[in-house]
User: Which sequence fits this backbone?
């Protein structure tokens, strides 16, 4: 028998700290997964790309349907700090560090949009500039705001 991602999140709320539960939520709602300890074919970057297993909306709907279940209160609290679409474990850790309230060990910034596509003007230079070009040569002067947003 296999547990749904939503039920797994609820079950783990009874076992994990709030921070670790938030990290699990990011992975479940993200586009990456961590390898098993015995996995011999781990990509060099240390994680796999995949489609999200669930979403914050699905987690909330599931938790709303489970009043009084052990771990629900902590799971609902963790949802406040989650975003869909994290693309890597380090992105998750950074988002958690930046957005958790100060009293929970974070910096208290507002939640970001994860991996949002940025619109650009047709014909804008889509070249990716490396840091040296922009920083080492007096910045990316002369570039319009659309092109700068693509960098």
Assistant:
């Amino acid at each position: 028998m296999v547990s749904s991602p939503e039920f797994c999140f609820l079950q783990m709320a009874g076992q994990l700290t709030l921070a670790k539960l938030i990290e699990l939520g990011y992975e479940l709602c993200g586009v990456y997964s961590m390898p098993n300890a015995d996995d011999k074919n781990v990509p060099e970057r240390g994680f796999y790309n995949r489609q999200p297993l669930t979403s914050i909306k699905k987690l909330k709907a599931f938790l709303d349907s489970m009043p009084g279940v052990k771990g629900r209160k902590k799971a609902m609290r963790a949802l406040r700090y989650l975003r869909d679409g994290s693309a890597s474990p380090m992105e998750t850790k950074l988002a958690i560090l930046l957005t958790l309230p100060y009293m929970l060990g974070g910096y208290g910034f507002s939640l970001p949009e994860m991996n949002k596509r940025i619109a650009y003007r047709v014909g804008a230079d889509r070249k990716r500039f490396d840091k040296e070009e922009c920083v080492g040569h007096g910045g990316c002067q002369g570039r319009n705001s659309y092109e700068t947003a693509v960098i």
Observations:
- The mean pLDDT is 84.
- The two ends are 46 Å apart (CA to CA).
- Helices lie at 5-13, 18-29, 56-64, 72-79, 89-99, 131-135, 145-150.
